[in-house]
Write a structure and sequence with these properties.
By secondary structure, the protein is mostly helical. Helix content is 77%, strand content 0%. The chain is built from six helices and no strands. The longest helix is centred in the N-terminal third of the chain and has 33 residues, at 20-52. The protein starts with 10 loop residues before the first helix and ends in a 5-residue tail after the last helix.
Length: 149
């Protein structure tokens, strides 16, 4: 059955989407994104405190600290859309949950980009996102959103 990008599942897919395991997985994913957002906000606060105490905070750290909590809001909305049956949203969340930790931690590990405390903070911020990567690849969500052939 062909569907457009905004459509929801077929009847069989809708039944899987309403399965308690599927909804529990989405609830956990949404809560993980909320935790990521809270940690991102704490990282922003830490950058503000460090800068206000006269320590060096580079432009990269400011931009990253401001953008990551904003991105958390967007990812949460995409995850909520996936929970309502959007395959496209599910694929986006699934992909972002893998790419974000790799790129964010990878860039932070480039010597001279960030101080070690900031790298550690970013790693902690990415832990819930890594959890979402596992959730979106778990059996409940794989069954609700089988790969297209």
């Amino acid at each position: 059955m062909k569907t457009n990008e905004n459509s929801t599942h077929s009847t069989a897919g809708a039944a899987l989407l309403n399965d308690p395991r599927t909804q529990d997985a989405f609830t956990t994913a949404k809560n993980s994104i909320k935790i990521y957002g809270a940690l991102g906000a704490a990282a922003l606060l830490a950058v503000i405190v460090v800068a206000s105490t006269g320590h060096t905070v580079n432009t990269f750290m400011w931009v990253r600290a401001v953008l990551l909590p904003v991105i958390a809001v967007l990812i949460h909305r995409i995850t909520a859309s996936a929970a309502r049956g959007s395959r496209r949203a599910f694929e986006r969340v699934s992909t972002l949950a893998v790419i974000m930790p790799i790129t964010i931690i990878g860039v932070d590990l480039i010597p001279g980009v960030c101080p070690p405390w900031y790298v550690a903070m970013q790693v902690v911020c990415m832990l819930p996102v890594i959890g979402v990567a596992f959730i979106t690849r778990g059996s409940a969500l794989r069954a609700a959103f089988p790969k297209k052939r």
